[in-house]
């Protein structure tokens, strides 16, 4: 199958996507950003059902955003690209996911309560489309599919901040859980590829601490400058502003 043009749209995948993106949704022709938000939500929900770890799911979202930085959203079916990104991310992060499982979970996503697809022509056509689209993604990204995520930085920053806070105050406030939830939400939009991973991690922790009114001991430098010496208050505010825009978009997608 030729994957270099609009013919890359899979008939089967278009039927899958059409059932979720038509009818009851807020608009017949969603904006580009709203469309990407919904597709990334699909990636995350699919990842949960496939028991994928958080980093492979994050890699799938980054692959998706990187790909559509290079091509127009109307050139390829976004949900087909998303399925291929999940498949490729499993390989990159050494958590291989079978194409059959990805297809069946995706089918259930768009057809709640339905039985798994039969191994008929429609199934094999969709499987071939996922595999061929994976090759297209690799070529578009010049085979650069390994990314540095904020996860390791956030873990390090959380451990450092925890040691500075009264243990009883820390246990009463879900700062860590909130920071991880905020970080996951970042991947719904392209902000995850427009900011440095260290800055995203700092901003998520900063927002979580402020949300619960947790104060850290004052020093000559701000705590976030101690943890990441190249981040500025403007960097933190820019990340948070982008995240808040995603939450505004989420409200429109409900």
TrEMBL record:
Gene3D superfamilies in alphabetical order: Cyclin-like
Cyclin-like domain boundaries: 41-139
GO biological process: regulation of transcription by RNA polymerase II
SMART domains found in the cross-reference section: CYCLIN
GO molecular function: cyclin-dependent protein serine/threonine kinase regulator activity
Regions that span the bilayer: none
Keywords attached to this entry: Cyclin
Protein family membership: Belongs to the cyclin family. Cyclin-like FAM58 subfamily.
Its job: May be an activating cyclin for the cyclin-associated kinase CDK10.
PANTHER family according to UniProt: CYCLIN (PTHR10026)
Protein name as it appears in the record: Cyclin-Q
């Amino acid at each position: 199958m030729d994957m270099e043009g609009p013919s890359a749209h899979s008939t089967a995948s278009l039927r899958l996507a059409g059932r979720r993106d038509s009818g009851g949704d807020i608009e017949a022709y969603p904006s580009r950003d709203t469309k990407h938000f919904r597709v990334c939500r699909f990636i995350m929900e699919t990842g949960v059902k496939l028991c994928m770890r958080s980093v492979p799911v994050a890699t799938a979202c980054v692959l998706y955003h990187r790909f559509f930085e290079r091509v127009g959203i109307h050139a390829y079916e976004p949900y087909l690209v998303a399925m291929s990104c999940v498949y490729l991310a499993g390989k990159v992060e050494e958590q291989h996911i079978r194409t059959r499982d990805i297809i069946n979970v995706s089918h259930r996503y768009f057809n709640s309560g339905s039985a798994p697809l039969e191994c008929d022509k429609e199934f094999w056509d969709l499987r071939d489309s996922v595999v061929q689209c994976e090759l297209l993604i690799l070529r578009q990204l010049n085979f650069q599919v390994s990314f540095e995520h904020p996860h390791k930085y956030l873990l390090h920053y959380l451990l450092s901040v925890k040691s500075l806070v009264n243990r009883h105050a820390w246990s009463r406030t879900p700062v860590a859980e909130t920071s991880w939830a905020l970080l996951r939400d970042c991947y719904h939009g392209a902000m995850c590829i427009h900011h440095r991973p260290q800055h995203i991690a700092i901003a998520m922790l900063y927002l979580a601490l402020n949300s619960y009114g947790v104060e850290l001991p004052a020093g000559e430098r701000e705590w976030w400058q101690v943890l990441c010496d190249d981040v500025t208050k403007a960097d933190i505010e820019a990340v948070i502003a982008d995240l808040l825009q995603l939450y505004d978009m989420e409200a429109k997608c409900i």
